[in-house]
Design a protein that fits this description.
The complex is a heterodimer of chains A (518) and B (321).
Chain A lengths: L1 H21 L1 H5 L2 E6 L14 H10 L4 E3 L5 E3 L2 E8 L2 E6 L13 H13 L11 E6 L2 E5 L7 H5 L7 H7 L1 H4 L9 E7 L3 E6 L12 E6 L3 H9 L5 E2 L7 H6 L3 E16 L17 H10 L2 H8 L4 E3 L17 H4 L4 H10 L6 E8 L6 H13 L3 E8 L1 H7 L9 E6 L6 H8 L20 H10 L5 H18 L2 E14 L2 E2 L14 E2 L1
Parallel strand pairs in A: 1-10, 1-11, 14-15, 14-16
Antiparallel strand pairs in A: 2-3, 4-5, 5-7, 6-7, 8-9, 9-10, 11-17, 12-16, 12-17, 13-17, 18-19
Chain B lengths: L1 H26 L6 H4 L6 H11 L5 H13 L13 H36 L4 H15 L2 H15 L12 E3 L2 E3 L4 H34 L2 H8 L4 H30 L2 H6 L6 H9 L3 H29 L7
Antiparallel strand pairs in B: 1-2
Classes of the chains: A alpha+beta (518), B mainly alpha (321).
């Protein structure tokens, strides 16, 4: 199925290329201007990541394994792969692929990229690669530290560099003069003004239909809307919620939405003593955690704070992910019920409630500060006096960092573009300080040996089916135990003028190769 | 004059040093930049590696010492976020800002001085009252609101000006300048008007107050008595004597707009350097903030120096010591 979608993509591209050849005059002129929320910080994938940079990376470079718009995984620079044994993978590379400078893509480039990443600011990209060797020019062998079924999904984020060019250019200049195998080459980048990409006609996936792609950073949401309405740009990312109706009512424009992967979650401290709570911590009791879950009215949050542009979360990961349990829904397990919540609080011996502090951001998630305020009034109904500690994200991540010396109750977001619950469960729910690389973001100090064992088993099997089974078991345990309350998925909102074909990607990485304009 | 220059230079070095110390101290309270560059689920080892690569593993004192020593070698440090030289990041965005500010200031003077002189000379007239009421609006309306209204009216509604961006540019001595192209002028009008309103109102009110003050002086009556035309009296005798405080304010405003045109730049997505400062503050990108604020201090010192020289030209009784 995954392979099918990939070949369908290629067939589509070839079909369009044929069409393009039939009417050259028209095809020559296809270009698009896309309004982004920010200028990219980098064009060198090992220098860091944020959304605008990620969008550029996937135009300029390719990974071995390609992530589709719907989170399906298929061949990229690797044509196929197989398990030699539980911890050894053999990737057969695509033949005849060249970088934009004409250099041939070979196994040596892949080995170089992996080793380069290890020394860079992004060693996490290759955390599950113990060793990589080039078997021949078009074959690489990767050893993982332990059986790891979702290695190909991880590799979708590792973008392959040209060894010769990268060495000669140096890290600093790579950010300005990128060189990859991707469908587009850098034309011109004037900081904060525009970034122009030109089609790479020798692209292995077919000639790009749109020949020139211009990205313009327009930070102010109202200006972005204005630029679309005046025809200065063809597509905008992140249409402001308050402008949705305006753009919909305008002739010649459409609004495109899709639920994002970003799950806004509330982490509850489960330690005996919690930094902002006087006396013993009531949230060690599952009944108190359930009471909090039942007191939160996600529908009201959605309607009042999010203008209806959020999707209440049913689990910790979306249904497309490994580890999702069909039919289980947090919202049906713990629907809004203040009476029941009060009863649970009373049963746990906390009928009079308690006081604690919620740590939240004010510039990271959609309407984050307003959500925090709404939560305070909702929890007041079960006598929890919620103090708000709201700060910008530059302070937030350091403040809430494990070992969580300041926080009892934290609102943050989590997304797993790798399409697998395992990394999230390992980072967020695995017992702290038990195993290197696990539990590093377990902010509530949650500890459940059964969950730990399931995550261990999932990370020790080479079979995706078995991994899915173990992670589903973990999901069931977690939803019953409620170490964290899933609130909602934000929506990605795009707007485009008519004539632009845009299928939003689950991972938000706008990709002009999949788009078309009239 | 030369001694004065030397004195000013020494003062400047002192100011720059103080700015660098203050920024270094302040930045230790604004969050840890390493969390802005590592992924949210980074392990301790990954964070330690990033810290080492950014040079953040050393104590603040060592970091400051390294900053000072490389400064003396002409190296202003590298941005944590962009991993590029901080000075380059600022300088490549500077022409756009300076260009917009100069147009805005020219506009402000062209409108404010004549209106201010008129209002000062005829304080009782109806037109003067109208001008003064307008200037109050100019001072009190926030720039972001004016910018949005202008975009809505002139770009979305009437379609006469583009809503954002800088448009075509032409190169002059390697610097990209939009004032050399028609498209560039087309793009600069709305942001420059937005930026100029506040300064325009202030200069107008200063000019009017100065003119009213000067108007009462005896030499104005003598000038009129000896037969000078009304406009000669107002502009040559009156304005020249009313100008000292106006020039002072002009210098301060000029520096202020170059350094902190952030809001106008953000609204019109003008690719200037003000936005870089705000972004860097959000990302705790200390090297950029330090260099930016030192550059701003430098600009202010230079402008003040020029203002002082202009004083002596306007009023020969003033000498620089």
């Amino acid at each position: 199925m995954k392979y099918l979608s990939q070949s369908a993509l290629r067939a589509g591209a070839i079909g369009l290329a044929v069409l393009a050849a039939a009417s050259p005059a028209l095809a020559q002129e296809k270009s698009i201007i896309i309004g982004l929320t920010a200028d990219p910080s980098h064009l060198y994938p090992l220098a860091g990541e944020e959304l605008s940079s990620n969008i550029m990376y996937y135009h300029l470079y390719d990974p071995l394994v390609k992530r589709g718009a719907d989170l399906s995984f298929g061949p990229g620079l690797a044509e196929s792969w197989e398990n030699v044994d539980e911890t050894t993978w053999r990737f057969t590379l695509r033949e005849g692929v060249t970088f934009h400078n004409g250099n041939a893509f070979t196994a040596a480039d892949v080995v170089y990229t992996v080793n380069k990443a290890r020394e860079s600011i992004r060693p996490d990209l290759v955390a599950n690669i113990a060793e990589i060797t080039a078997v021949d020019d078009l074959t690489v062998e990767i050893k993982t530290p332990a059986p790891y079924a979702v290695l190909p999904n991880d590799l979708a984020e590792l973008l392959i560099l040209d060894e010769e060019y990268t060495e000669a250019t140096g890290d600093e200049q790579m950010d300005l003069k990128p060189m990859g195998t991707g469908p587009y080459m850098l034309g011109e980048w004037i900081k904060e003004e525009k970034l122009v990409l030109n089609a790479f006609d020798d692209y292995w996936g077919g000639e790009p239909v749109i020949k020139t792609v211009t990205f313009r950073p327009i930070t102010n949401p109202a200006t972005r809307t204005a630029a679309l309405l005046t025809g200065e740009v063809d597509v905008i990312q992140d249409l402001a919620v308050r402008d949705v109706d305006r753009v919909k009512s305008e002739d010649g424009f459409s609004v495109i939405t899709r639920p994002s992967l970003l799950n806004v979650v509330l982490a509850m401290d489960t330690r005996e003593d919690s930094p902002t709570i006087e006396g013993p911590n009531p949230m060690t009791d599952q009944r108190v955690r359930e009471a909090i879950a039942r007191a939160i009215d996600v529908d009201a949050l959605n309607q009042v704070v999010m203008n209806g542009l959020a999707t209440p979360s049913d689990q910790y990961v979306p249904s497309s992910h490994i580890g999702y349990v069909d039919g289980m829904n947090f919202r049906e397990m713990y629907p809004l019920d203040i009476e029941k919540a009060k009863q649970l609080m009373a049963d746990a011996g906390h009928a009079d409630g308690f006081t604690m502090t919620l740590d939240a951001t004010n510039n990271r998630y959609v309407n984050d500060a307003q959500i925090a305020q709404a939560l305070a009034s909702m929890l007041a109904k079960i006598n929890i006096d919620l103090q708000l500690n709201i700060m910008p994200k530059s302070n937030f991540w350091g403040y809430i960092r494990v070992p969580t010396e300041n926080s009892s109750f934290i609102m943050s977001g989590w997304d797993v573009p790798a399409g697998d619950a395992g990394s999230m469960y390992g980072a967020l729910f695995y017992t702290r300080d038990k195993k290197e690389g696990y539990g590093q973001v377990n902010r509530g100090s949650y500890s459940n040996p059964e969950v730990d064992a399931l995550v261990d088993k999932a990370d020790a099997t080479g079979s995706i089916e078995e991994r899915d089974q173990y992670l589903q078991e973990a999901t069931k345990l977690l939803l019953a135990d409620i170490p964290m309350i899933p609130v909602h998925y934000e929506q990605d909102i795009y707007a485009a003028r008519d004539g632009v074909t845009l299928e939003p990607r689950v991972d938000k990485f706008i990709w002009a190769f999949d788009m078309d304009v009239e | 004059m030369f001694a004065y220059l030397i004195k000013r230079l020494i003062q400047m070095v002192l100011v720059l040093w103080v700015v660098s110390v203050i920024v270094f101290l302040m930045m230790s309270f604004t969050g840890d930049p390493v969390f802005m560059v590592v992924p949210i689920d980074a392990t301790d080892a990954e964070i330690a590696q990033a810290r080492r690569l950014l040079g953040l593993d050393q104590s603040l004192l060592v970091q400051y010492w390294k900053f000072l020593t490389s400064l003396l070698q002409g190296d202003f440090g590298r941005s944590y976020v962009f991993r590029q030289p901080a000075m380059t990041l600022i300088l490549e965005r500077m022409p756009a800002t300076v260009e917009m500010v100069l147009v805005a200031m020219a506009l402000a003077i062209a409108v404010a001085i004549p209106l201010g002189v008129y209002a000062g000379a005829n304080p009782e007239s109806r037109i003067s009252r109208f001008i003064m009421a307008g200037s109050l609006l100019g001072i009190s309306l926030p720039g972001f609101w004016v910018g949005m209204v202008l975009i809505y009216l002139f770009a979305v509604h009437w379609g006469v000006f583009p809503s954002s961006g800088r448009g075509d540019t032409a190169e002059l001595w390697g610097i990209r300048i939009s004032l050399l192209t028609w498209d560039g002028w087309h793009h600069i009008v709305l942001p420059a008007v937005t930026l100029s309103l506040g300064t325009m109102a202030i200069i107008l009110r200063m000019t009017r107050a100065g003119m009213m003050e000067v108007g009462r002086q005896d030499f104005m009556k003598f000038a009129r008595a000896k037969g000078a035309t009304r406009s000669d009296v107002l502009y040559k005798h009156g304005l020249k004597n009313a100008l000292i405080p106006v020039v002072t304010i002009f210098g301060l405003q000029l520096g202020d707009l170059i350094a902190f045109a952030t809001i106008t730049e953000t609204i019109f997505s003008w690719p200037g350097m003000g936005k870089l400062l705000i972004d860097s503050i959000y990302r705790a990108d200390r090297p950029v903030i330090v260099v930016y604020l030192m550059l701003v201090a430098f600009i202010f010192v230079v402008i003040n120096f020029i203002v002082d020289i202009v004083y002596t030209m306007i009023d020969p009784r003033i000498t620089l010591k």
